[in-house]
Amino acid sequence: MADTNVDEMSFEQAMSELEQVVGQLERGDVPLEDSIKLYERGAELKKRCETKLKEAEEKVAQITLGSDGQAAGATPVEGL
Fold first, then answer.
1. pLDDT mean for each 10 residues of the chain (80 residues)
2. Counting Cβ atoms within 10 Å, is residue 15 exposed (0-12), middle (13-18) or buried (19+)?
3. What local confidence, expressed as pLDDT, does residue 79 receive?
4. 3-class SS shares of the chain: helix, strand, coil, % to 5
5. How confident is the model at residue 42, as a pLDDT?
6. Which of 1, 2, 29, 53 has the fewest CB atoms in 10 Å of its CB?
7. CA 79/CA 7 separation, integer angstroms
């Protein structure tokens, strides 16, 4: 389990570590106290992934199309 601050991770970094956490928990070979810590870390990573996905969805939703149906630009999303 990495000590990297979850809030500083990219989507890919968070997803990769989340997959590792899930794998460890699924194997069931981790002591209870470590399992609890892994679960808490996994919850933080999941939240980070959801946040990054929501940001991406909002950016995509703001892409404007021209009369020919092609992307013509993007409208900035407040707060991003």
1. 84 96 95 96 97 89 72 61
2. middle
3. 53
4. 60, 10, 30
5. 97
6. 29
7. 16
